[in-house]
UniProtKB/TrEMBL annotation:
Gene3D superfamilies: D-Amino Acid Oxidase, subunit A, domain 2, FAD/NAD(P)-binding domain. This is glycine oxidase. Residues 4-351 form the FAD dependent oxidoreductase domain. GO terms for molecular function: flavin adenine dinucleotide binding; glycine oxidase activity. Pathway: Cofactor biosynthesis; thiamine diphosphate biosynthesis.
Length: 379
């Protein structure tokens, strides 16, 4: 396919879309105001957990997450092959732990609908539970085990996708400072603070928590807000029993990484675009962690950081073309699941650019669904 496209934003979503668009034959330029992977994508825990993240019902968002998980084995291998860079991809399965009898009913009802969607789940109790995860608190009454869930080391994945982009011929411009959309109604022109100008036939906006900056220019409501996630890691030497699964409760998660760290997350704070870490935020995590994994009462995290999740008003990402300007596409607002959702987002965006109709259920992710900035416009 011929044509030029600019991808605005070099997080995991922009990078993955750029790679897939290039694989489908487009000339792709990616522009990033800072370093690629320098925001939410580099902060993420890297869990690929559609079942643990969707506990209520199999809605369109769950379906998107599940389909993306099914793409991961091939996608991550393709990224490794094209980039020549290795990164952790661990098919560990997960445990969603109940610490009170009253939570058991909720696990059982989840088990029922999730099994019909391929989770392969089972409920573990007593000795079976502690054999599966020996370090777990003996106060745990049960856990829903979902064997198909997995995780990646997110900063390395982002770097590998960037390298795969470069190896495939995507032109990447980083550290450009503020970038503005100078023209968009027919052809696209971007003007960077650095003085550079970029032009193309099409534009993909994948600027994460910053996407609402485009609202006024494009004339549509883009209700996307930053939700800060504070997160920490413990050094995990070989004498300590490693965690075998992703471990979730309603309060947070724990995930063992191959680099000898145990990552524990994450807060959900409203703090604007502030990415600082607070003692209060981390204390909440450490207090909770030791109730799940008692050994964590003896140690303190050695590393703390934070990132801004892009949250959309209705909880669903924005994926696809604009109704009133088909050459402008949006892929943003992936909130807690952008690492998981990167392969399916890349595939849907590339299909849209190729003019293929998206499956009907993907209408739930239409970028125009919130209407125009003036009530009624473009809705
Ligand atoms: C603590 C934490 C833990 C998480 N854990 C998980 C997890 O376990 N699993 C999972 O799937 N997801 C997880 N997430 C969510 C995931 O990180 C995000 O959904 C995902 O990174 C969003 O990717 P993105 O590319 O849209 O955004 P970002 O990574 O934020 O990238 C957006 C990029 O756009 C750039 N940009 C902004 N404005 C402009 C502009 N005008 N021009 C050019 N560039 C611009 C920014 O500099 C940035 O680099 C976690 C997030 C956090 C914070």
């Amino acid at each position: 396919m011929n044509g030029d496209i600019i991808v605005m934003g070099g997080g995991i979503i922009g990078l993955s879309c750029a790679l897939e668009l290039r694989r489908r034959g487009l000339n792709v330029t990616l522009v990033e105001k800072g370093p690629c992977g320098g925001q939410a994508s580099g902060a993420a825990a890297g869990m690929l957990a559609p079942y643990s993240e969707n506990v209520e019902s199999p809605d369109e968002f769950f379906r998107l997450c599940r389909e993306s998980l099914s793409l991961y084995p091939q996608w991550q291998q393709a990224v490794k092959d094209i980039s020549g860079v290795s990164f952790e991809y661990a098919e560990t399965g997960s445990l969603y732990v109940a610490r009170h009898e009253a939570d058991l009913l909720a696990l059982e009802s989840r088990l029922e609908w999730q099994r019909s969607w391929g989770s392969g789940g089972e409920i573990l109790t007593g000795s079976a539970l502690f054999a599966a995860e020996p370090g777990l608190t003996r106060k745990a009454v049960a856990a829903l085990r979902t064997p198909v869930e997995s995780h990646v080391y997110a900063p390395d994945l982002a770097e590998a996708v960037k390298r795969a982009c470069l190896a495939s011929g995507v032109r990447i411009h980083e550290h450009l400072g503020r970038i503005e959309l100078a023209e968009w109604r027919e052809r696209v022109a971007l003007r960077a603070q650095s003085g550079e100008r970029f032009e193309a036939d099409r534009l993909l906006i994948s600027t994460g928590a910053w996407v609402q900056e485009m609202s006024e220019t494009l004339g549509i409501r883009i209700p996307v807000y930053p939700i800060r996630g504070q997160i920490c890691a413990y050094a995990w030497n070989e004498e300590r029993e490693p965690l075998r699964h992703l471990v979730f409760t309603s309060q947070g998660y724990l995930v063992q990484k191959a680099n000898g760290t145990l990552v524990c997350g994450a807060s959900e704070d409203i703090a604007g675009f502030d990415t600082s870490v607070t003692d209060k935020g981390i204390r909440r995590l450490t207090e909770w962690n030791k109730q799940v994994l008692p050994v964590l009462g003896e140690v303190q995290p050695f590393h703390r950081w934070a990132g801004l999740r892009p949250a959309v008003l209705d909880g669903r990402p924005l994926i696809g073309r604009l109704d009133h300007a088909g050459h402008i596409l949006v892929a943003a607002g992936h909130y807690r699941n952008g690492i998981l959702l990167s392969p399916i987002t890349a595939a849907l965006i590339a299909d849209s650019v190729e003019g293929k109709p998206l499956p009907e259920w993907c209408g739930a992710f239409r970028p125009n669904r919130f209407g125009g900035v003036q009530a009624g416009a473009f809705s």
